[in-house]
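User: Quick sanity check before I run a bigger batch. Here is a single chain. Can you write out its predicted 3D structure?
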Amino acid sequence: MPSDNFLTKRLLPATLATLATFLSFTVYAHDGSSVGETASIKTEVYSPKSTGVRKLTLGTQEIKMLVDKSNLGSTEIEVGELFLPAGFQGTGDHQHENLEIFYVIEGTLGHEVNGKLYRLEVGDVGIVKAGDTVNHSVLSESSMRALVIWTPGKESAVLINRFNFSEKAME
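Assistant: Done. Predicted structure follows.
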């Protein structure tokens, strides 16, 4: 299993740097002073540290929202930690309006995109483009955890309003 150091020092910064090439925004420090190049979208004051802002649940599916508008100050991206229990048989075919990227941290994710099943092991990345049909299941005997990145953000609202996830503040 990749170390937390790998996730925070290499994967997340590399992913955000790649996404930044597709996005146009200004980076601001938590006090509101600009620390990056100014572009077309300005962000609000943000929280530089978070252990998560809220949990979304639907049955046995759980998503711990790590980054969203409430701590980022803008909606360019949302990041969540997805948990699916062993034996989870699938989310059912569905579509998203945004790019969705999965990075498997634990277990094995069945990642079916447009009818083709991919087996995502620890360290694998899965991609779903807007409009693709997707279904997820757990293929391992143990539970599955993955980092999920949505860009642009606002996917949590879709999960709540369209897919009926419930929302609870982090304690």
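The chain has one domain: 50-169.

User: Great, the batch can go ahead then.
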